[in-house]
Amino acid sequence: MNPTFDIFISYRRKDLDGKVSGRDIAARIKNAFEDRGYDVFFDLDNIQDGFFDDRIIPAIRTCKVFILILSTDALVRCSNQDDWVRREIKEAIDSGCHIIPINPDGAFEGWPKDLPNEIELIKRIHISEMNMDTIFKESIQHIEETRIRKVAHPKRFPKTQDNNSGKRYNLKIITDTDCIISIDGYDCGICKANKVRVLELPEGSYVLDIVCMEEPIIRNTYDIEVTSNVIKRCSLKNVIEKINSISKFEENGKYGLINKADDEIILRPIYDDIKPFSEGLAAIQLNDKWGFVNKLGRIIVSPQYLHVENFAYGYAKVQKGTKDGFIDKTGKIVIPIKYDFVSPFDENELALVNKDGKYGYINRWGREIIPIEYDDIDFSFYEYLCSAKKDGKYAVVDVKGRLITSFLYDDISRFFGGVAKFKLDDKWGLLNSVGEIIIPNEYEEIDFAYDELVLAKKDGKYGFLSLSNETIIPFEYDSAYIFRDGLAPVCINHRWGYINKQNEKVIPLKYDMATPFSEFGLAVVKINNETHYIDKGEKLYVYKPKLLK
Predict the structure, then answer these.
(1) Is 148 helix (H, G, I), strand (E, B) or coil?
(2) What whole-number distance in Å separates Cα of residue 40 and Cα of residue 100?
(3) Distance CA 314, CA 337 (A)
(4) Reported pTM
């Protein structure tokens, strides 16, 4: 039987110059994850052709996580059908592995233009930045916590120094809520509520740490002597219920925190304001300064900031004077307080920043992913893309800071369904996600593709296009809305009705107003100054606005 693995590491052994490329990086990452208890497959040797199917393919099929090291030339030879990196990526995709592309020290220079279709999917997968120098351990920890723990947990932990007997026993752990457990500081994964978690341990002394997943602030630590089979029960539910009973209260115009379960005051009412808890911490205001408190009433960050925002993805935006930066949950400044503006970190682990009137994006390590050089930029990414403005013109930029288009356009909208609206010479068209014009700028108005059709206006009339710029419904309507559920509202001479995709008027143009059909199968119409709902059979219903919310 072939061994099973938690993590498979794919890398390019040599770059185009024949020099060692990703091997040393991959080896270091392998050692880091093995130290954390994961079983890692990493091929140090040059595998002969005959062993690829015997060793590499089975290893990929058994692993949960596939790490792809994006060294400088990692993918340049993937156009070769027999290239091993290409074959590894394809097998990972076909096997449903959780794929994590890693960019060490910003070495990766972008996706090759000739990337094969069979591995094209990796372009849509978020790339994690990896600092190989000063914050290597922090980078490893962040990737593990945010991307690996979702699908895999370490199975191994170090033996104690005083174990010489060779005997092994079962430690059975039972908790009343989902917990993360560790032995001697070494993570052993999840213990599900009311399920027995068994750890096989060598004879010896251990420290068992149990952390509540719902409320990580709740934890218990035990000294365990393993000289026989041991059962350890741990109850945290009562503590969770107690913490969840914490609420803000007012006394003499000041605010504190109280545990309503037993009326215990956990934070004295001396604060000017207290915001709701976020990621286990709440912002507190005292004398026009802000800090943070945890659910045990402990001040984690003393009030010192002019403004703070809730924690998101482990970081909180803070302001001192006129400058913004970020702190972590310990209060440590992790992004210098030097920006004129920062947004909270998003799901791409990026934050919008403004400095000296220019915009860009930084990652969690403070590195400029999108240079701070643009006059304007989208507040967030849509489908890993955004528009940026420079010298009066717009271009499309991706989450890695690569320009997808040149700065040619007068305006570019957000992306939706793989396309974005663009404006040039006072006319609108559509771009796709690789910057290609799929509908030229020939239209006075244009909307995204809903139900596969694009609403557009030309020469003062509305019609519908395909994404290949084919006219599906002629430009003959005075007004119109998008298709939804196979029907679109249209208007001629101030009378509204509905057409299907064959331009058949399935509901006559007789209404004073009409909206697209909602998810409930109803549309709002107005006739004779009265508002109604109708279904597709024109049955009238009492108008209740909340139905369409």
Answers:
(1) helix
(2) 14
(3) 17
(4) 0.64
pLDDT over 60 at 26, yes or no: yes
354: pLDDT strictly greater than 90: yes
Nearest partner of 395 among 376, 412, 378, judged by Cα = 412
Mean pLDDT over the full length of the chain: 87
Q: What is the DSSP letter of 277?
A: P
Residues 182 and 299 both lie in one domain: no
The Cα–Cα gap between 512 and 516 comes to 14
The yes-or-no verdict on residue 162 having pLDDT over 60 is no
* Cα–Cα distance, 284 to 321 (Å, whole number): 18
3-state helix, strand, coil in the chain (%, to 5): 15, 45, 40
The bridge status of strand 307-308 relative to strand 368-374 is unpaired
Question: Are residues 295 and 370 located together in one domain of the fold?
Answer: yes
Of 326, 356, 374, which residue is a domain's last? 374
Q: How far is CA 48 from CA 45, 52, 54, 205, 341, in A?
A: 9, 7, 11, 45, 54
Q: Tell me, what's the pLDDT at 321?
A: 94
Q: Are 210 and 178 in contact (CB under 8 A)?
A: no
- Tokens of residue 96, six digits: 């449903």
Full domain range(s) for residue 223: 168-241
